[in-house]
Amino acid sequence: MAVIKAFKGMRYNTAKAGEISSLCCPPYDIISEQERLAFIKENEYNIIRLELPKEGENPYACASDILKMWQDKGILKIEDKPAIYIYEEEFSVGNTRKSIKGIIARVQLEEFSKGIILPHEFTLSKAKEDRLNLMKATNCNFSQIYALYMDEKHTTLATIDEQSKAKADLEFTDKTGVTHRLWIETDEEIIAKLVADFADRKLYIADGHHRYETALNYRNYCRENGISKPGDPQDFQMIYLVDMEHPGLVVFPTHRLVRDLPNFDKEAVLEKSSEFFYIDEKEGTDTMEEDLKKLYDEGKKAFGFYCGKGEWFLLTLKNIDFMSQMLPNVSKASQSLDVSVLHTLILEKIFGIDKENMAKQINLTYTKFFTEAIDGVDKGEFQCSFVLNPTRVTEIRDVAAAGEKMPQKSTYFYPKMITGMVMNNLGVD
Question: Tell me, what's a Pfam family for it (predicted)?
């Protein structure tokens, strides 16, 4: 099953580079150009220059040059001993303070067909091309993939908690209020115990599908071009591993906003929807999320169909059997997803937005923010929006275990991992 190992991580030498808080950044794909420049202005050694290179005529080659320069100047250093890194994020959801903790290790890459490491969402080729070019130029992973594992007795988590009682080796709170902590575990006995824990486990990718598929492509590229052989570091990827039942695991929904549909007619949508859904007309959006959560807790499939000016409709699926009729060739796990219900019965059947249209985002925009789903319609930028409940972690597991994938933007794991606390230099054994 899953093979994990310790590695000599590449980390900042803060004595030369500056405070760790000024060196890290959020995931590259949620950073605007204005934010990217602000990170560099605050500290020229910020990881964004490697993770999201935009300098010079060939940004990837420039990233390679910057990496070498920082290594030569001692800005970046390699760990003295192989380590497994314990990583914790402490954060707020509403008025509740939570934390989630796991380990960062090298994980042996496996094709999805082997059923050892499983995806749950479809990906876009453009993002994979960008990440592959960066790996070819730098031979590094600068950020982690996020994966879940099943551990009924929580033995790994018990070890992690025991080994992270002392003060963290690195700690800072970012501008969004998330506190990041990193412990560097080099004890060989503890490492051996953690490695053994995963010998009979599967991993479920939560976040980072693009990077995982890119890592597979890069491994194959290196083998084909004589850069590496089986067993070399290029066969491994840096992955953050979290217990699937961790109490701090938070998944937000991703809402859908609809735009530029010819002849959009709210009444026609409602009339056609009534075949599949109970429809309750509502006024004012203050209780929309609360109304949806109530139905979520009851195990029902429901959405908020927002039409602007405070007017919305609560759509509750009448019978899940509709989905087995519409999608007879997929598992019940996939049939039962809220996003599958919305996409199949409304977006595809009523609006005519097919899967290719969704992938290219011709008539759809996605947001994790409830306020954006409402304001976008009120401002006239969108014709309507659909507010969703979050996907359950057990649903992610069941769809992946069935060898299937969810529609894009089915999940949003919160908070995102920070980039820059530890990196994986594939030139180091």
Answer: DUF1015
d(CA 252, CA 94): 12
- Residue 32 above 90 pLDDT? yes
Q: Which domains does the chain have, with CATH numbers?
A: 4-250+414-425 (no CATH), 254-389 (3.30.1760)
| Cα distance between residue 104 and residue 96, in whole Å | 26
Q: pLDDT value at position 397?
A: 86
Strand spans (E) along 150-248: 170-173, 179-185, 203-207, 236-243
Place of tokens 């009851």: 298
User: Do 138 and 58 touch, CB atoms closer than 8 A?
Assistant: no
DSSP bridge pairs for 198: none
Model pLDDT, residue 123? 61
pLDDT beyond 70 at 175: yes
Nearest to 144 by CA among 67, 232, 49, 242: 242
| Residue 42 C-beta-side C-alpha neighbours within 13 Å | 17
Whole-number average pLDDT of the chain:
95
Question: Does 374 score more than 60 pLDDT?
Answer: yes
Q: Is the whole model's pTM more than 0.85, yes or no?
A: yes
Which H or E element spans position 371?
Answer: helix 370-378
Question: What is the three-class DSSP state of 172?
Answer: strand
Summarised one tens digit per residue, pLDDT across range 182-241 is 999 999 999 999 999 999 999 999 998 889 999 999 999 999 999 999 999 999 999 999
Which tens digits make up the pLDDT trace of 38-60? Answer: 999 999 999 999 999 999 999 99
Where residue 85 falls (left for φ over 0; alpha for ψ -120 to 50; beta otherwise) is beta
Structure tokens at 322: 């509709």
User: What string of H, E and C letters represents the secondary structure of 89-147?
Assistant: EEEEECCEEEEEEEEEEEEECCCHHHCCEECCECCCHHHHHHHHHHHHHHCEECCCEEE
Residues found in the chain: 429
Cα–Cα separations (whole angstroms), residue 159 to 110, 240, 244: 26, 16, 16
Q: Which amino acid is at 30?
A: I
Phi, psi of 104 (to 5 degrees): -110, 125
- The pLDDT value recorded for residue 224 is 97
Please report how the helices 125-138 and 59-72 are oriented relative to each other, as an axis angle in degrees rounded to 10: 40
Least confident of 102-116, 223-237, 387-401: 387-401
